Protein backbone atom coordinates (compact mmCIF):
# COMPACT_ATOMS: atom_id res chain seq x y z
CA UNK A 1 0.00 0.00 0.00
CA UNK A 2 1.17 3.54 -0.76
CA UNK A 3 0.65 5.96 2.13
CA UNK A 4 -0.27 9.59 1.47
CA UNK A 5 -0.44 12.04 4.40
CA UNK A 6 -2.41 15.30 4.42
CA UNK A 7 -1.72 17.74 7.30
CA UNK A 8 -4.53 20.09 8.34
CA UNK A 9 -2.42 22.77 10.04
CA UNK A 10 0.76 24.67 9.24
CA UNK A 11 2.38 23.36 12.43
CA UNK A 12 1.85 19.71 11.49
CA UNK A 13 2.98 20.47 7.93
CA UNK A 14 6.29 21.82 9.26
CA UNK A 15 6.76 18.80 11.53
CA UNK A 16 6.19 16.40 8.63
CA UNK A 17 8.78 18.24 6.55
CA UNK A 18 11.28 18.05 9.39
CA UNK A 19 10.59 14.34 9.86
CA UNK A 20 11.23 13.71 6.18
CA UNK A 21 14.51 15.67 6.26
CA UNK A 22 15.70 13.88 9.42
CA UNK A 23 14.95 10.48 7.86
CA UNK A 24 16.90 11.35 4.72
CA UNK A 25 19.77 12.68 6.82
CA UNK A 26 19.87 9.41 8.79
CA UNK A 27 19.85 7.38 5.57
CA UNK A 28 22.83 9.27 4.16
CA UNK A 29 24.63 9.28 7.53
CA UNK A 30 24.46 5.48 7.64
CA UNK A 31 26.24 5.25 4.29
CA UNK A 32 30.02 5.09 3.93
CA UNK A 33 30.68 6.55 0.47
CA UNK A 34 31.81 10.16 0.21
CA UNK A 35 28.68 10.90 -1.85
CA UNK A 36 26.50 9.61 1.01
CA UNK A 37 28.07 12.11 3.39
CA UNK A 38 27.97 14.88 0.82
CA UNK A 39 24.21 14.28 0.58
CA UNK A 40 24.04 14.31 4.40
CA UNK A 41 25.70 17.75 4.48
CA UNK A 42 23.30 19.15 1.86
CA UNK A 43 20.35 17.66 3.78
CA UNK A 44 21.65 19.29 6.96
CA UNK A 45 21.48 22.68 5.23
CA UNK A 46 17.89 21.90 4.23
CA UNK A 47 17.13 21.15 7.87
CA UNK A 48 18.58 24.53 8.88
CA UNK A 49 16.43 26.29 6.27
CA UNK A 50 13.21 24.72 7.59
CA UNK A 51 14.06 25.10 11.27
CA UNK A 52 15.03 28.75 10.83
CA UNK A 53 11.64 29.82 9.47
CA UNK A 54 9.57 29.36 12.62
CA UNK A 55 9.85 29.42 16.38
CA UNK A 56 10.06 25.69 16.22
CA UNK A 57 11.05 25.06 19.82
CA UNK A 58 8.00 26.94 21.15
CA UNK A 59 5.69 25.17 18.69
CA UNK A 60 6.96 21.77 19.80
CA UNK A 61 6.59 22.55 23.50
CA UNK A 62 3.05 23.84 22.97
CA UNK A 63 2.14 20.70 21.04
CA UNK A 64 3.66 18.48 23.72
CA UNK A 65 1.70 20.34 26.41
CA UNK A 66 -1.51 19.93 24.42
CA UNK A 67 -0.93 16.21 23.90
CA UNK A 68 0.02 15.71 27.55
CA UNK A 69 -3.25 17.36 28.61
CA UNK A 70 -5.21 15.17 26.18
CA UNK A 71 -3.56 12.01 27.55
CA UNK A 72 -4.27 12.96 31.15
CA UNK A 73 -7.91 13.61 30.30
CA UNK A 74 -8.47 10.03 29.06
CA UNK A 75 -10.76 7.92 31.29
CA UNK A 76 -8.70 5.70 33.57
CA UNK A 77 -10.50 2.53 32.43
CA UNK A 78 -9.32 3.15 28.85
CA UNK A 79 -5.67 3.68 29.78
CA UNK A 80 -2.76 1.32 30.30
CA UNK A 81 -1.28 3.01 33.38
CA UNK A 82 2.25 1.77 32.78
CA UNK A 83 2.29 2.84 29.15
CA UNK A 84 0.83 6.22 30.08
CA UNK A 85 3.54 6.73 32.72
CA UNK A 86 6.23 5.88 30.14
CA UNK A 87 4.76 8.36 27.65
CA UNK A 88 4.50 11.10 30.25
CA UNK A 89 8.12 10.56 31.29
CA UNK A 90 9.23 10.75 27.65
CA UNK A 91 7.24 13.95 27.13
CA UNK A 92 8.83 15.50 30.22
CA UNK A 93 12.35 14.52 29.13
CA UNK A 94 11.81 15.94 25.67
CA UNK A 95 10.27 19.14 26.98
CA UNK A 96 13.16 19.64 29.43
CA UNK A 97 15.69 19.12 26.63
CA UNK A 98 13.86 21.65 24.43
CA UNK A 99 13.87 24.18 27.27
CA UNK A 100 17.63 23.73 27.53
CA UNK A 101 18.16 24.87 23.95
CA UNK A 102 19.20 28.52 23.72
CA UNK A 103 17.96 30.80 20.93
CA UNK A 104 16.61 29.74 17.56
CA UNK A 105 17.10 26.19 16.38
CA UNK A 106 19.28 27.05 13.38
CA UNK A 107 21.69 29.10 15.47
CA UNK A 108 23.47 25.89 16.52
CA UNK A 109 24.47 25.35 12.89
CA UNK A 110 25.16 29.02 12.19
CA UNK A 111 27.83 29.01 14.91
CA UNK A 112 29.97 26.74 12.73
CA UNK A 113 31.65 29.11 10.26
CA UNK A 114 33.01 26.28 8.12
CA UNK A 115 29.54 24.77 7.65
CA UNK A 116 28.06 28.16 6.82
CA UNK A 117 30.75 28.76 4.20
CA UNK A 118 29.86 25.41 2.65
CA UNK A 119 26.17 26.31 2.82
CA UNK A 120 26.72 29.45 0.74
CA UNK A 121 28.67 27.44 -1.84
CA UNK A 122 26.05 24.66 -1.89
CA UNK A 123 23.48 27.08 -3.33
CA UNK A 124 25.68 27.42 -6.44
CA UNK A 125 25.13 24.50 -8.86
CA UNK A 126 28.24 22.36 -8.61
CA UNK A 127 29.67 24.85 -6.13
CA UNK A 128 31.17 22.19 -3.86
CA UNK A 129 33.58 20.74 -6.40
CA UNK A 130 37.09 20.06 -5.17
CA UNK A 131 38.61 23.14 -6.82
CA UNK A 132 35.89 25.39 -5.32
CA UNK A 133 36.09 23.98 -1.78
CA UNK A 134 39.44 22.19 -1.27
CA UNK A 135 38.97 21.94 2.52
CA UNK A 136 35.64 20.21 1.94
CA UNK A 137 37.24 17.90 -0.63
CA UNK A 138 39.86 17.02 2.01
CA UNK A 139 37.11 16.28 4.55
CA UNK A 140 35.32 13.97 2.11
CA UNK A 141 38.55 12.00 1.67
CA UNK A 142 38.78 11.23 5.39
CA UNK A 143 37.80 7.73 6.66
CA UNK A 144 34.01 7.18 6.79
CA UNK A 145 34.12 6.79 10.57
CA UNK A 146 35.69 10.24 10.92
CA UNK A 147 33.10 11.87 8.67
CA UNK A 148 30.26 10.12 10.53
CA UNK A 149 31.59 11.36 13.86
CA UNK A 150 31.72 14.93 12.53
CA UNK A 151 28.16 14.78 11.21
CA UNK A 152 26.86 13.41 14.51
CA UNK A 153 28.73 16.08 16.45
CA UNK A 154 27.32 18.89 14.30
CA UNK A 155 23.74 17.71 14.88
CA UNK A 156 24.03 16.66 18.53
CA UNK A 157 22.52 19.93 19.79
CA UNK A 158 19.50 19.42 17.49
CA UNK A 159 18.52 16.01 18.86
CA UNK A 160 15.82 17.45 21.20
CA UNK A 161 14.10 18.84 18.10
CA UNK A 162 14.28 15.46 16.40
CA UNK A 163 12.93 13.71 19.50
CA UNK A 164 10.11 16.25 19.81
CA UNK A 165 9.08 15.83 16.17
CA UNK A 166 9.09 12.03 16.44
CA UNK A 167 7.14 12.10 19.70
CA UNK A 168 4.43 14.52 18.54
CA UNK A 169 3.87 12.77 15.19
CA UNK A 170 4.05 9.32 16.80
CA UNK A 171 1.37 10.18 19.34
CA UNK A 172 -0.78 11.75 16.65
CA UNK A 173 -0.58 8.74 14.33
CA UNK A 174 -1.19 6.33 17.20
CA UNK A 175 -4.50 8.06 17.90
CA UNK A 176 -5.99 7.45 14.46
CA UNK A 177 -9.56 6.46 13.68
CA UNK A 178 -9.43 3.98 10.80
CA UNK A 179 -12.03 3.54 8.04
CA UNK A 180 -12.13 1.16 5.09
CA UNK A 181 -13.90 3.04 2.33
CA UNK A 182 -14.65 3.13 -1.38
CA UNK A 183 -14.56 6.26 -3.55
CA UNK A 184 -17.20 5.86 -6.29
CA UNK A 185 -15.59 6.98 -9.55
CA UNK A 186 -12.72 8.35 -7.48
CA UNK A 187 -14.72 10.82 -5.35
CA UNK A 188 -15.30 10.60 -1.59
CA UNK A 189 -16.54 12.89 1.18
CA UNK A 190 -16.70 12.43 4.93
CA UNK A 191 -18.19 14.69 7.59
CA UNK A 192 -15.87 15.48 10.50
CA UNK A 193 -18.74 16.63 12.76
CA UNK A 194 -16.67 19.53 14.08
CA UNK A 195 -14.00 17.35 15.69
CA UNK A 196 -10.46 18.65 15.41
CA UNK A 197 -8.54 16.51 12.93
CA UNK A 198 -4.85 17.35 12.49
CA UNK A 199 -3.74 14.74 9.96
CA UNK A 200 -5.36 12.45 7.41
CA UNK A 201 -3.61 9.33 6.11
CA UNK A 202 -4.73 7.58 2.92
CA UNK A 203 -3.55 4.05 2.06
CA UNK A 204 -4.00 3.01 -1.58
CA UNK A 205 -3.08 -0.13 -3.48
CA UNK A 206 -0.30 0.88 -5.94
CA UNK A 207 -1.79 -1.48 -8.55
CA UNK A 208 -4.73 0.94 -8.91
CA UNK A 209 -2.39 3.61 -10.33
CA UNK A 210 -4.20 6.56 -8.72
CA UNK A 211 -3.09 9.65 -6.79
CA UNK A 212 -5.31 11.20 -4.09
CA UNK A 213 -5.83 14.91 -3.52
CA UNK A 214 -7.68 16.31 -0.53
CA UNK A 215 -9.40 19.49 0.58
CA UNK A 216 -10.77 19.88 4.08
CA UNK A 217 -12.19 22.16 6.73
CA UNK A 218 -13.29 21.40 10.28
CA UNK A 219 -16.63 20.01 9.04
CA UNK A 220 -15.83 18.03 5.89
CA UNK A 221 -13.06 16.36 3.96
CA UNK A 222 -13.26 15.84 0.21
CA UNK A 223 -11.01 13.27 -1.40
CA UNK A 224 -10.53 12.73 -5.11
CA UNK A 225 -8.47 10.09 -6.88
CA UNK A 226 -7.08 10.58 -10.36
CA UNK A 227 -4.62 8.70 -12.58
CA UNK A 228 -1.11 10.13 -12.80
CA UNK A 229 -0.18 12.11 -15.88
CA UNK A 230 3.10 11.63 -17.71
CA UNK A 231 4.55 14.46 -15.59
CA UNK A 232 3.36 12.61 -12.42
CA UNK A 233 0.85 15.31 -11.51
CA UNK A 234 -2.79 14.23 -10.87
CA UNK A 235 -5.06 14.30 -13.87
CA UNK A 236 -8.27 16.34 -13.83
CA UNK A 237 -10.64 13.97 -15.62
CA UNK A 238 -12.91 11.77 -13.45
CA UNK A 239 -12.15 8.09 -13.01
CA UNK A 240 -14.34 5.38 -14.45
CA UNK A 241 -13.69 2.99 -11.56
CA UNK A 242 -14.43 2.80 -7.85
CA UNK A 243 -11.34 3.11 -5.64
CA UNK A 244 -11.06 1.08 -2.40
CA UNK A 245 -8.77 2.68 0.16
CA UNK A 246 -8.10 3.01 3.89
CA UNK A 247 -8.55 6.38 5.59
CA UNK A 248 -7.07 7.28 8.95
CA UNK A 249 -8.11 10.47 10.74
CA UNK A 250 -5.59 11.46 13.42
CA UNK A 251 -6.77 13.53 16.37
CA UNK A 252 -5.45 14.19 19.83
Ordered list of secondary-structure elements with their pairings:
Layout: E1 2-7, H1 10-30, H2 34-51, H3 56-72, H4 81-99, H5 107-110, H6 113-122, H7 134-140, H8 144-155, H9 159-174, E2 176-183, E3 187-191, E4 199-204, E5 211-216, E6 220-226, E7 243-250
Antiparallel strand pairs: 1-4, 2-7, 3-6, 4-7, 5-6
Helix pairs in contact: 1-2, 1-9, 2-8, 3-4, 3-9, 4-9
Question: How does this model look, in words?
Answer:
The chain has 252 residues and is an alpha+beta fold. It has 9 helices and 7 strands. The strands form 2 sheets. The chain has a 4-stranded antiparallel β-sheet with strand order 1-4-7-2. A 3-stranded antiparallel β-sheet has the order 3-6-5, with no helix packed on it. Helix 1 runs antiparallel to helix 2 (34-51), helix 3 packs antiparallel against helix 4 (81-99) and helix 4 runs antiparallel to helix 9 (159-174). The relative contact order is 0.15. This is Cell division protein ZapD. Cell division factor that enhances FtsZ-ring assembly. Directly interacts with FtsZ and promotes bundling of FtsZ protofilaments, with a reduction in FtsZ GTPase activity.
Properties at a glance:
YacF-like; 252 residues; septation; four-stranded antiparallel β-sheet; cytoplasm; three-stranded antiparallel β-sheet; alpha+beta; globular
Shape: globular
Measured as a percent range, the helix fraction is 40-55%
How far apart the termini lie comes to 25 Å
Record field, number of beta strands = 7
Strand content: 15-25%
Describe the biggest sheet? 4 strands, antiparallel
CATH class of the largest domain: Mainly Alpha
* Helix-strand category: alpha+beta
Low-confidence stretches: none
The named CATH superfamily of the largest domain: YacF-like
The sequence of SSEs as H and E is: EHHHHHHHHHEEEEEE
| Mean residue pLDDT | 88
**Which CATH-level-2 architecture of the largest domain?**
Orthogonal Bundle
Amino acid sequence: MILFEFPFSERIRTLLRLEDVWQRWQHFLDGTHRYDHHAAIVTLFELADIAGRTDLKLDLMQELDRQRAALLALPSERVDAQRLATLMARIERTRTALLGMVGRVDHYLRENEWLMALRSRAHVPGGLCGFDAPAYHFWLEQPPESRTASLERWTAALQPIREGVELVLGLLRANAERFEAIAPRGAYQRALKGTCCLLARVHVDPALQVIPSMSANKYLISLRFAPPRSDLRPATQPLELDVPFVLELCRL
